[in-house]
Amino acid sequence: MKVEMTHRVLDWRNRRAWLQHIRSYAKPLLLTPKLVAVLERRRPQCWSDVMEWLPDHHDLVPEFCDRMSSYYTHFKAFHGCRPESLSSYYDHGLRGQNADSIIKKFRQLFADLPPASLDRAIEKMQHRESSERGKTWLSGDDRQMVRDFGHYIINGSEYLLALAAKLSGGHYEEDYRLRLRTIGIPTVLEVDIPIELIPPAQKLEVAKMILSEWGQLRTKRPLGISSSPCYVVRSDIPAECIKAHYHPARIRDFHHCIPTYINKTVRCDHCPPASELA
Ligand SMILES: [Zn+2]
């Protein structure tokens, strides 16, 4: 008999669900008459970055984080990219940033420019090579990503964009960054990141964000800010963690005079057949 592994995913977009889950893993910790009474009486502002509002926060926050981390098996997150094909993602998963392959692509894409100016741009970016090596950036909420930081979806890797930006100015008239928009397919990958791949500091960040939202409900004092977690994963994420993908048709564009980027390629070879879409 096959043993079903429990698969519990924190999906930041489903606020109601993760607020309910708190009862399952942190009830004895948070829902004590004493703590609730203090919050309801004092009604502090329940920030996520300053936890002074929470009594015993030095002990309570790490304990809450431990419980949350044992409850969930995965954090759902979204990766924005502009690959030429999705094959490599479905074959090898998400592999962290590799400057060598980005530089190779950069040289191909700008093969018509003097090699010396390409070399100069590559050299100017060298300081970022090692600090960013092996990292993958993901966001807890795809809607927010498409709205507020969709440039990875429009241009592809930030590193490639920065290389192209280094070519502009000086003798050249063209904005070379726009050339990145001529290759690849704007894509959002939906990924269930195994919790053990999330760095501890980022788990703690999520725990504080959940506590903050919970506190705001308890005190009935909403802070009126909505943010979603960001994840920087330093190891490869296996292909089976990719749950879906799509190609957004409209993306907010901060690097262009036209504020909305219209993507006309909304299907690729790896999209599920139309018959499977409900
Ligand atoms: Zn597709």
Structural class: alpha+beta
Order of strands across the widest beta sheet?
1-2-4-6
- Total DSSP helices: 11
Low-confidence segments, ≥5 residues, pLDDT <50? none
Largest sheet: 4 strands, mixed
Summed up, the domain count is 2
Could you walk me through the main structural features you see in this protein, from its secondary elements to its overall organization?
With 278 residues, the protein is of the alpha+beta class. It has two domains: 9-74 and 194-233, no CATH class; 78-191 and 235-276, no CATH class. The chain has eleven helices and eight strands. It has helices at 15-30, 33-42, 57-71, 87-92, 99-109, 115-124, 126-132, 142-148, 151-155, 158-167, 200-219, and strands at 9-10, 74-81, 136-139, 187-194, 230-233, 242-246, 250-252, 260-262. The protein has a four-stranded mixed sheet. It has a two-stranded antiparallel sheet with strand order 3-5. β7 (250-252) and β8 form a beta hairpin. The longest helix is centred in the C-terminal third of the chain and has 20 residues, at 200-219. Zinc ion binds next to loops.
Secondary-structure topology with pairs:
Elements: E1 9-10, H1 15-30, H2 33-42, H3 57-71, E2 74-81, H4 87-92, H5 99-109, H6 115-124, H7 126-132, E3 136-139, H8 142-148, H9 151-155, H10 158-167, E4 187-194, H11 200-219, E5 230-233, E6 242-246, E7 250-252, E8 260-262
Parallel strand pairs: 1-2
Antiparallel strand pairs: 2-4, 3-5, 4-6, 7-8
Helix pairs in contact: 1-3, 3-11, 5-10, 6-10
Bound molecules: zinc ion.
Zinc ion (ZN) binds next to loops.
